[in-house]
Fold:
Amino acid sequence: MKTKLVLAAGLSGVLGVGALGVSALPGSNGFLGVALAQDAASEASALTEYEQNTIDVIEQYGPSVVSVEVSAQVSVPSGDDPTAQIPEGLDDFLDQFPQFRDYLEEQGQQFGTPEGQLPEGQLPQTPPQQGSGSGFVIDDAGRILTNYHVVRAALQEGSVELTQGSEITVSFPDDDEDYPVRVVGANDFYDLALLELQDPSSEPESARPIPIADSDALQVGQKTIAIGNPFGFEFSVTAGVVSGVSRSLQGFGDVDVPLVQTDAAINPGNSGGPLLNSAGEVIGINTAIVPGTGGGFGAAGNIGLGFAVPSNIIQDNLAQLEEGGLTTLET
Structure:
């Protein structure tokens, strides 16, 4: 489960061997030339303050960021078009995996099984569909925050209970275990969900709550660090800046949410992961992008326009999430 995609790349040569210059510098002996070259290489490889800060933040709070894996068992109503009545939430999977959308369309007649061939009340089912996202430890009880849209397809309509046959698990960095979780509470219009390990005592000791910053104090231009699992590449780190605050994004939820905009690379699979500042504090939860239009991965990839639900909205809604149940505009 741990690695979904593995790409191998080779370098045709070792960079810098000739540039270091092991021959003598003009007007010097060979040993001095080597020493000066080694000193120059050491200086060039020294970490900058910016780099060291990123490394420190990742070392401290990286173990608290999880991969969220969703296996959704979905019943498809009969009819001529099996995609027409797919339950809300599965569209997120279909957007990530268009080949499954094609599969549904090809199997249209199968899903339109004549009445009487299946037991009464039983609907045809697709194979369990897989989706993934990210999340992070939010409190001392080891509970995990993610996006509602990451887990929605596996939940019963209007509820935080799993549909029959569905499962949600999380995995921590450098840990081969998949830990089953349940959804404690969710908020539809802020796209938040709180998860809890079915066995809270199994949480790795290295995981700790990530502190939450005051997003009202954000300044355009300050550093951002995103951690998540884009396209299945687990525990990927990107950095950038706050590109804007109080952004509105058409098509996001049912209410106008003042989103944080960042140019830190965010891609499918980053959803639910933390957006951190240079102190390692959560300033938002990565939620949406304006996708690219190229081929391959770029078809839904990053073009430098990522958006996060600000941390103050997380703070304001934590109590409701802990109480449990699904909050919608109607509740």
Observations:
- Residues 1-28, 78-85, 107-116 have pLDDT under 50 and may be disordered.
- The longest helix spans residues 30-45.
- The two ends are 37 Å apart (CA to CA).
- The CA atoms of residues 36 and 42 lie 10 Å apart.
